[in-house]
TrEMBL record:
Its main location: membrane. Belongs to the peroxin-11 family. Keywords: Coiled coil, Membrane, Peroxisome, Peroxisome biogenesis. It comes from Ananas comosus (Pineapple). This is Peroxisomal membrane protein 11D.
Length: 199
């Protein structure tokens, strides 16, 4: 394969990615929160970019709550642990509600954050148990360990993104304006957007 063929293939993948409204929304979200971080709530060109991008993203989010409602009523895989099911269903319900009424209650956000911490603890405990079992063997040669590690890393990334999204929601609703400043909201939103693009 020549360099030109590789470039064509990469451009074709980029075009496929950009043809999705959700992909464009994620890119706009990264721009919006990057601008929010840069402006730190102060009047400047970056703040104008933040506000304009926020308005532009509304088109991408029309009726998007339907996706979350569909995910809420879809069956979950049988091997999924209960705390993760509860966390996923809570997230889907909250995101659908947030997108529908454009609001989020602080108590619910705190409850979901507690679930996130509980799931992180469970994942850590599970991996330590498996590492003890493979104490004398090369754990990276064991397929079960690699599969669990991959699954654990995916869940960890999803939980980190969820935590960042909760912080962004708290910042946008100004529930803790002294702690979650526009710069913090912008930084967490930007990182969360990059994670979304990666996922």
């Amino acid at each position: 394969m020549t360099a030109l063929d590789a470039t064509r293939a990469e451009l074709a993948l980029l075009i496929l990615y950009l043809n999705k409204a959700e992909a464009r929304d994620k890119i706009c979200r990264a721009i919006q929160y990057g601008s929010k971080f840069h402006s730190n709530g102060e009047p400047c060109h970056a703040q104008n970019v933040d506000k304009t991008t926020s308005l532009a993203r509304k088109v991408f989010r029309l009726f998007k709550f339907v996706n979350d409602l569909h995910a809420l009523i879809s069956p979950v895989p049988q091997a999924t642990p209960f705390p993760l099911i509860l966390l996923g269903e809570s997230k889907n319900a909250l995101v659908a509600l947030f997108k529908f009424v454009n609001d989020l209650h602080a108590l619910i956000a705190g409850w979901v954050l507690l679930l996130v911490l509980a799931e992180l603890h469970r994942l850590s405990k599970s991996m330590k148990k498996l590492e003890k079992q493979l104490k004398h063997a090369d754990k990276y040669e064991d397929e079960e360990y690699r599969a669990k590690l991959k699954k654990s890393n995916e869940r960890l990334l999803a939980l980190i993104k969820l935590s960042m999204d909760l912080t962004v929601a708290i910042g946008l609703l100004q529930l803790a304006p002294k702690r979650v400043t526009p710069r913090v909201t912008g930084a967490f939103g930007f990182i969360s957007s990059l994670i979304s693009c990666y996922q």
